[in-house]
Amino acid sequence: MMQQEPSFRELKDEADIAAALEEGRRLFAGSCDFVFGAQKLGQLPPQTLPEIAFAGRSNVGKSSLINALTGRKTLARASSEPGRTKQLNFFDLAHRLMLVDMPGYGFARAAKSVKEDWQEMMFDYLRGRPCLHRVVLLLDARVEMKVHDLDVMKLLDRAAVSFQVVLTKCDDVKPTALARKQAEVEAEIARHAAAFPYLSLTSSQTGQGIEALRAELAEFALS
């Protein structure tokens, strides 16, 4: 599960940065096909590729981010009713990386049993999937962190799965408020052993941060 060294965030030479950005662009411009939707752990597809999973509260913009990364409009589709999607959706990216769209969490109207089932299934997936290299954890830049977000970070710590926090919808926040939000989230990240130390600021509408995130995730792809 070791990523290439140095990582994209550590690059200093402009030529190296440009090359990493181009590699990310090429990877995510490749074919990206839906493979399977698993509602139970026994339905998971074979572990043939490195996996990157995307997690976040319902309506955080997860589907929009996946679509922006892959340059598609309808690859990942948001449910019209928060909490309705309860399966792990697998997408084969250029036969080099598997993108996993996890069900949204924190949906207020869901029954307690559904919430408990989500946590149990997700924890079992996280700790029992050796090919899972990183979880991209999305937080909405416009709202405060919720108890559910902190609970998922703790769950990822317990599962010993590396996770990277990404702020979404940053275009909808004024610069001063965004700077405060960034400082708040970075302070929280520092409290978690499994957290990737760098925070990503993104907007699926404007493309902010998308190229850099592609380059970071491309480090896990098969050569």
TrEMBL record:
Its cofactor is Mg(2+). PANTHER family: ENGB-TYPE G DOMAIN-CONTAINING PROTEIN, MSS1/TRME-RELATED GTP-BINDING PROTEIN. Keywords: Cell cycle, Cell division, GTP-binding, Hydrolase, Magnesium, Metal-binding, Nucleotide-binding, Septation. One of its GO terms (molecular function) is hydrolase activity. Residues 48-223 form the EngB-type G domain. InterPro entries: G_ENGB_dom, GTP-bd, GTP-bd_ribosome_bio_YsxC, P-loop_NTPase. Necessary for normal cell division and for the maintenance of normal septation. The keyword DNA damage does not apply. Pfam families: MMR_HSR1 (PF01926). Signal peptide: none annotated. HAMAP family: GTPase_EngB. This is Probable GTP-binding protein EngB. One of its GO terms (biological process) is division septum assembly. It comes from Acetobacter ghanensis. Belongs to the TRAFAC class TrmE-Era-EngA-EngB-Septin-like GTPase superfamily. EngB GTPase family.
